[in-house]
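Key result, reporting period 2: structure in, sequence out.
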């Protein structure tokens, strides 16, 4: 059942939403289908196609609910306001993929950007509220409240489930790109759990990015996003050892990186830059491309990476970008200058709950032989991390420091 939830939730919800024409109703029916599966599968065994079973059950429940509504409207015509014809789906829709269509639909311009992204990650992509909260650097109760408010706004404003037309896609594209990117990063390094990678989320993000490129081939940021995902994912098999322990990029076997993915990613980066409309995803992809091309960590073109981070900071001002830039700065100018930048970020407070801030600070202090402070920073990072592989890595790094 857990596997069916991880793999099939988005498919089932997207297919049910097309019938229900109402996201809340679709979610309710899908939840009921999973509950029904608990009893039916325990009694009859797991069907050959669990996703098809769940979809059929959820869609049947949605149709039953709609029939009940129609009966109610027929019997109480004076008490019920007429509803928009949400179910009049066009024969040819602008977005051919069910899941991508649902992502565009949830990224409704009536919602604030963070609400669009959070709601879509939660409902369509099946990402837990806690993991979404970590991606946005807020607490879980805060994120839960945002998702609830977004759903209430949809209901209160009577925003129908309606597939956006082709002309409406560009205004929703940036939110959709953010959803796909956060879905990927959540899978690339799982915010919680035992494993470093959630392959189902990574694969889903790659699928959505490819569908996006097919749908909007002239958008350079779509090209940049797919390039970024491919170049980053090319290292997937080497990011842990045979025991599942995290390996830093400098310790990975570069000969085992996926060269096919790297070649495709590099081609997409070049194509994105040729348009002259370079944004945050193309710039991040260019940085990933330099890492992919380098013969070793030390021989990476760090000055060029710092320059790209400077451009990225202008295109997308973010404390996370500034933190990653500090790592590159440390490779060009040494750890002392980078530590000053990291300390400035720490004083700012925006990354207070971000364990990478303390982890990077610990590494810089280690390189400066300030071991006691490094140990304190590692402990601070350990207090914030929820992924077992990352926790084990930080614990091992802490253990290698000389004791006073």
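The corresponding designed sequence is given below.
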């Amino acid at each position: 059942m857990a596997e069916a939830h991880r793999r099939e939730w988005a498919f089932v919800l997207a297919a049910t939403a097309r019938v229900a024409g109402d996201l809340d109703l679709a979610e309710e029916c899908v939840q009921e289908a999973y509950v029904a599966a608990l009893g039916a599968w325990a009694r009859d065994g797991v069907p050959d196609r669990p996703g098809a079973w769940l979809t059929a059950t959820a869609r049947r429940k949605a149709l039953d609910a709609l029939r009940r509504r129609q009966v109610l409207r027929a019997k109480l015509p004076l008490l019920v306001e007429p509803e928009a014809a949400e179910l009049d789906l066009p024969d040819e829709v602008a977005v051919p993929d069910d899941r991508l269509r649902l992502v565009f639909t949830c990224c409704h311009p009536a919602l604030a950007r963070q609400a669009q992204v959070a709601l879509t990650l939660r409902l369509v992509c099946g990402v837990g509220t806690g993991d979404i909260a970590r991606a946005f650097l807020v607490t879980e109760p805060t994120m839960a409240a945002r998702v609830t408010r977004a759903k209430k706004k949809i209901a209160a404003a009577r925003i129908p489930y309606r597939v956006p037309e082709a002309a409406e896609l560009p205004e929703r594209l940036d939110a959709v790109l953010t959803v796909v990117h956060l879905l990927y990063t959540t899978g690339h390094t799982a915010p919680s759990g035992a494993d470093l990678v959630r392959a189902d989320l990574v694969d889903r993000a790659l699928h959505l990015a490819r569908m996006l490129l097919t749908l909007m081939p002239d958008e350079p940021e779509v090209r940049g996003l797919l390039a970024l995902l491919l170049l980053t994912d090319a290292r997937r098999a080497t990011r842990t050892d045979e025991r599942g322990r995290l390996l830093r990029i400098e310790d990975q076997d570069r000969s085992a990186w996926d060269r096919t993915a790297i070649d495709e990613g590099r081609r997409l980066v070049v194509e994105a830059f040729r348009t002259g409309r370079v944004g945050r995803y193309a710039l991040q992809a260019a940085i990933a491309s330099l890492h992919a091309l380098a013969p070793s960590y030390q021989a990476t073109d760090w000055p060029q990476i710092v320059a790209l981070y400077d451009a990225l900071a202008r295109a997308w001002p973010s404390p996370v970008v500034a933190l990653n830039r500090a790592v590159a700065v440390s490779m060009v100018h040494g750890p002392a200058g980078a530590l000053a930048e990291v300390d400035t970020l720490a004083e700012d407070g925006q990354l207070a709950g971000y364990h990478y801030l303390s982890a990077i600070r610990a590494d810089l202090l280690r390189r400066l032989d300030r071991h006691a402070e490094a140990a304190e920073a590692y402990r601070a990072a350990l207090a914030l991390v929820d992924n077992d592989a990352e926790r084990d890595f930080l614990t091992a790094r802490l253990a290698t420091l000389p004791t006073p």
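The first strand starts at residue 192 and ends at 193. The beta strands are 192-193, 386-387. This case is discussed further under Risks and Mitigation.
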